[in-house]
Amino acid sequence: SLTLRDYDGQVAEAMALVRALNKMTKAGMPESVRIA
């Protein structure tokens, strides 16, 4: 099982990816995809 630290690291990576995708989406086209 993952330790809490490993889990937090994965969450931080995922959030960074989502932020990058949102920046590209807003720059390129209207937001049509929502990430929960």
From TrEMBL:
Protein name, entry field: IS5/IS1182 family transposase
Organism this protein belongs to: Salmonella enterica
